[in-house]
């Protein structure tokens, strides 16, 4: 029988009285749309209209100590991923089995090999990373709270869910969530609560990385290019990055192109500079290119190779993209592996503590043991492929069927991960077209910490933590992506 889940106390007393709830929700919806906390509808798409993005009416509680730990660790995670991306032998060995069966990862790896053979046009990479984590309520390291009182907030430690190295979204929507909820708390006559909502400069931090890379490229006429999907639903999150750069640095031009458009209009100049029409590109920021559907034909892969061969600074470069695969993260979670990339024993210990169990499914003794373990106790695990963007994982009791349908070789495209059991809290989830007043539901949250790192194989030029975002989903839902349609914007309310 499942143990009673840990709960986190809400930041204000809930439920609210219905008239007050209705009034503040109406205001918050309008506030969200008018401040760009919005998306285009997937069901009634129009380039001329926006819906507000789903959001939690009030912020969700998060232990202050764990939040501060996550923020402090981000620069170490940045350095770890930078070193991983520049270790050719490690990437090649780790992905050897996966690329035999996962066509998409194989195509990425093929681009990597071709660029290695012809020489990198640009040694410097820009990494805009997001380290996603969840609180683990059945935490081994500390047991429960030191105090023996009846407070319903047991000690929780946090565990790494994944590290995103491409299209790490919500640089705008993270801070926008805090702004909506700050407005709501003030409307509810609770302004004293605002001091427990941490400052969030994610948009400035992420754009700062692009601007620094543009300066390093050192051509005042060159542009920053966003690589975008054919249709962009999460438009505000992308455009606010562009508008921020244009507002603060009007001399820097920003263009948006699809992979197809880069193929049709792009070429290399004499010095390997990337030319799109008559514009030279200093920095390429990928908001697309992380899933197979973005590559319609060989043309888009040619475009990716063209960009990787150029002198433009990529975010991410192809080796950073590969460093973000689940298979690499599973390999990093093995004991002793971190010593290859980090020299400080204290840092190794700190990073080691945040990894949850990650297991290989390769066709060997270790992988076969994992396979048996997954069939025996599937409810303990999540099955993950080498994909970003949400909606791809297999959970719990669905795992045995999924695994039995795969050949031994096909299994190596996947990894198995311990299912994290986060604490539950309550909140009002407000959705476009949702019922009014919004229902009070049990929810769980996932925190993302942004990091920016710039450097080459020998040096790191710049490394900092760059804000955060919080996504919250109904406690019974498996996936939690807001853009994928299952999560909602939120922000942390820090509790001691």
TrEMBL record:
ATP binds at residues 326, 384-393, 395, 417-420, 446, 473, 479. This is Glutathione synthetase. Its EC number is 6.3.2.3. The lineage of its organism: Eukaryota, Metazoa, Ecdysozoa, Arthropoda, Hexapoda. It is an enzyme of class 6 (ligase). Binds 1 Mg(2+) ion per subunit. Keywords: ATP-binding, Glutathione biosynthesis, Ligase, Magnesium, Metal-binding, Nucleotide-binding. Substrate binds at residues 238, 471. One of its GO terms (molecular function) is glutathione binding. It catalyses: gamma-L-glutamyl-L-cysteine + glycine + ATP = glutathione + ADP + phosphate + H(+). Its cofactor is Mg(2+). Mg(2+) binds at residues 200, 388. It comes from the Eukaryota.
């Amino acid at each position: 029988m499942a143990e009673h889940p840990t709960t986190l106390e809400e930041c204000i007393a809930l439920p609210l009285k219905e008239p007050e709830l209705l009034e503040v929700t109406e205001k918050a919806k309008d506030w969200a749309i008018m401040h760009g906390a919005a998306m285009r509808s997937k069901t009634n798409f129009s380039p001329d209209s926006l819906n507000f993005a789903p959001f939690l009416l009030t912020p969700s509680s998060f232990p202050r100590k764990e939040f501060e730990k996550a923020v402090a660790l981000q620069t170490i995670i940045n350095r770890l991923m930078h070193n991983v991306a520049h270790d050719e032998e490690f990437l090649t060995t780790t992905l050897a089995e996966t690329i035999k069966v996962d066509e998409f990862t194989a195509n990425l790896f093929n681009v990597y090999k071709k660029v290695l053979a012809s020489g990198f046009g640009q040694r410097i990479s820009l990494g805009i990373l997001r380290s996603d984590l969840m609180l683990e309520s059945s935490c081994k390291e500390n047991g429960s709270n030191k105090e023996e009182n009846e407070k319903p907030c047991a000690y929780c430690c946090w565990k790494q869910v994944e590290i995103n190295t491409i299209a790490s979204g919500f640089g705008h929507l993270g801070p926008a969530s805090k702004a909506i909820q700050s407005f709501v708390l003030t409307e509810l006559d609770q302004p004293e609560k605002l001091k427990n909502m941490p400052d969030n400069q994610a948009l400035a931090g992420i754009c700062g990385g692009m601007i620094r890379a543009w300066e390093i490229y050192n051509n005042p006429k060159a542009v920053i290019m966003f690589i975008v999907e054919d249709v962009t639903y999460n438009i505000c999150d992308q455009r606010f990055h562009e508008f921020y750069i244009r507002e603060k640095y009007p001399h820097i031009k920003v263009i948006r192109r699809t992979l197809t458009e880069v193929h049709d209009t792009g070429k290399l100049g004499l010095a390997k500079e990337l030319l799109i029409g008559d514009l030279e590109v200093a920095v390429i920021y990928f908001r697309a290119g992380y899933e197979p559907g973005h590559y319609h034909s060989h043309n888009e892969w040619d475009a990716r190779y063209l960009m990787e061969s150029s002198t433009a600074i990529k975010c991410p470069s192809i080796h950073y993209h590969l460093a973000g695969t689940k298979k690499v993260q599973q390999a990093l979670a093995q004991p002793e592996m971190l010593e290859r990339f980090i020299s400080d024993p204290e840092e190794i210990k700190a990073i080691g503590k945040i990894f949850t169990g990650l297991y290989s499914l390769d066709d060997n003794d270790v992988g076969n043991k994992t396979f048996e373990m997954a069939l025996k106790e599937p409810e303990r695990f999540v099955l993950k492929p080498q994909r970003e963007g949400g909606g791809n994982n297999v959970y719990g009791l669905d795992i045995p069927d999924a695994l039995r349908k795969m050949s031994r070789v096909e299994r190596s495209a996947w990894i198995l991960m311990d299912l994290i059991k986060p604490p539950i809290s309550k909140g009002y989830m407000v959705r476009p077209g949702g019922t009014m007043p919004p229902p009070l539901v049990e929810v769980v949250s996932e925190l993302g910490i942004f990091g920016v790192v710039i450097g080459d194989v020998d040096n790191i030029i710049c490394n900092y933590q760059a804000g955060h975002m919080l996504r919250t989903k109904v406690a019974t839902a498996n996936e939690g992506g807001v853009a994928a349609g299952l999560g909602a914007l939120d922000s942390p309310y820090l509790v001691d």
